[in-house]
Amino acid sequence: LFAMLDIDFPAMARIPLFQLRASLKKGRLRAVYLADERQRYGYAIYQRYAPQHLTHVLYLAALPPYRSAGLGRTLMQRLNRLAGGRILLDAEDPAYAKTAKERNTDDKRIAFYRRNGYRVLPEFKFLNVGYHMLVLANFAPPRVHWLRMYRALYNNANGLPVARFLVTPYT
Predict the structure, then answer these.
(1) How far, CA to CA in Å, does 6 sit from each of 10, 47, 126, 130?
(2) SS (H, E, C) 154-165
(3) Coil, strand, or helix at residue 167?
């Protein structure tokens, strides 16, 4: 799992591996794979958020050789079944990409989520360790204090109360 994460998410764009390992081991986070008996094709790392009866997806990817083959949709369907249809996730805002290649990747990611029934929630955008993030959901979002909820999600995922330093709003 961690080798796959290194392919898709640079160290500065994700929770440190030692914290992910601890959160997975303690059950704060869960992993699901798209695999057969021979190999893994994709993965997702997620957490349940009981106060709002939703699932927050932190990381989701099909491995590079298998992208654009419909496996991402299959993984999203599996997550949807596990989550009972209420998924919240975040993705980098293409408007803040540093290069044309990054913007293209971010645009494709948002388009993928939209094709799979997600919509960008304009009421909350945040900075996560300097990355401008958009929040997407496949359900009508609850009326909540977004910053407080996202900080709770990231505190749980990190296993430490660090989100007030990591998760800040932007407009």
Answers:
(1) 6, 20, 23, 19
(2) HHHHHCCCCHHH
(3) strand
Closest to 139 (Cα-Cα) out of 35, 53, 33: 53
157-66-8-20 Cα dihedral, nearest 10 degrees: 30
pLDDT band (50, 70, 90) for residue 14: confident
Alpha carbon 69 to its chain centroid, in Å, reads: 20
* pLDDT at residue 56 greater than cutoff 80: yes
Distance CA 7, CA 26 (A): 24
Q: What is the rounded CA–CA span in Å between residue 50 and residue 23?
A: 17
Residue % of the chain over a pLDDT of 70: 100
Please say whether the beta carbons of 110 and 120 come within 8 A: yes
List, as one string, the DSSP characters of 1-32.
-HHHHHHHS-GGGS--HHHHHHHHHTTSSEEE
- Which has the closest alpha carbon to 132: 105, 104, 100, 106? 106
Beta bridge partners of 77: none
Give the span between the Cα atoms of 61 and 157, in whole angstroms.
18
